[in-house]
Amino acid sequence: MHAVGVNSFGGPDALEVVELPDPVAGPGQLLVRVHAATVNPTDTYVRNGARAEHQRKDPPPYVPGMDAAGVVEEIGDGVDTDLQVGDHVMAIVLPDGAHGAYSQRLALPAGSVARSPAGSSFAEASTVPMNGLTARLALDLLDVPVGGTVAVTGAAGAFGGYCVQLARADGLRVIADASEADEALVRDLGADVVVRRGDGVAQRILEHAPDGVDGLCDGSVQDEALFPAIRDGGGFAAVRGLKVEAPRGIQLHQVWVRRYLEEQAELDRLRQQVEDGLVTMRVAQTFPMAQAGEAHRLLEAGGIRGRLVIEL
What is the pLDDT of residue 224? Predict the structure, then answer.
């Protein structure tokens, strides 16, 4: 089978189409013929060697990718599922050496795979799993009661956008940030209040929540600069490793999506919320395998609204 990976770490041009053995479905696994894989910032770390200490136990090529959508080809022994061969599915993938979503076939734990939203394309379905589950986990960790207020930074991005929509679906008031150009988008996602993004956003949030918000999802990775926007004893969801002491009893939650890697019910819940119109699938552009490097180049340049997807 073909995959997109790197034999030597480097920039976007290091990505190349490689040949790998076809996997088979082992016990507890589904074999998925992948047709689309979304490009995420974490994929660039696999490509450029930022996580080389976790990869060098395996020989190259190293294949990135945490989001996949495709068709079930085989069901392994011992799998308890209502999925059948031929069903369209989406999946979250934990890259490990040559095992990553930029592959034409993947053997995955059954708990990592759910039916795709009805009527979705492969590209659309591939945008849901990783960022959707990360946002779901962030909100679950914050555990803000119905009627409470959460703030979301980086709200126009993938993680932030899902946080806005899922928080609204949870019955929460949402204060989100946006540039002037993205304000309409963030309002359309469901934010109750939109404040201008950038330095000083914590103070702008406080103008609409004078006692501080109950929880904050930090999609913009501003870290401790956002603590003033949170009430005493509130919660902060960090999507990158943050090793600081939070003040005023604020609970610091590290959001590692691998905790939900096999939470099939949560992935299927996202599927239902897409079908119910509560969650939006946003595809900005698709690329053939040979142009995966261009997708990485555009992602790293910033400013993309929606998702970049590699078609396999």
Answer: 96
Quickly list H helices, the chain: 41-48, 52-55, 122-126, 129-142, 158-169, 183-189, 201-206, 264-275, 292-301
Q: What is the pLDDT of residue 52?
A: 74
User: What token pair was written down for 97?
Assistant: 């050496």
Packed helices 158-169 and 264-275: angle between N→C axes, nearest 10 degrees: 80
pLDDT for residue 221: 95
Per the CB < 8 A criterion, the answer to whether 190 and 168 are in contact is: yes
List for the chain the helix, strand, coil content (%; round to 5): 30, 30, 40
Residue 134 CA to residue 104 CA, distance in Å, equals 24
Contact 105, 30 (CB under 8 A): no
| Per-residue model confidence (pLDDT) at position 56 | 60
Tell me the per-residue pLDDT of 68-94, one tens digit each, with 9 for 90 and over. 999 999 999 999 999 999 999 999 999
C-beta separation of 105 from 35 below 8 A: no
DSSP line for 197-239: -STTHHHHHHTT-TT-EEEEEETT--GGGGGGGEEEEEEEEES
Asked if residue 168 lies in contact with residue 149, where contact means CB atoms within 8 angstroms, the answer is: no
Note the pLDDT tens digit of each residue in 113-128: 999 999 999 999 999 9
- Domains, the chain, ranges and CATH? 2-127+281-311 (3.90.180.10), 131-258 (3.40.50.720)
Question: pLDDT, tens digit, for every residue of 28-59?
Answer: 999 999 999 999 999 999 999 987 766 667 89
Nearest to 87 by CA among 122, 123, 36, 111: 122
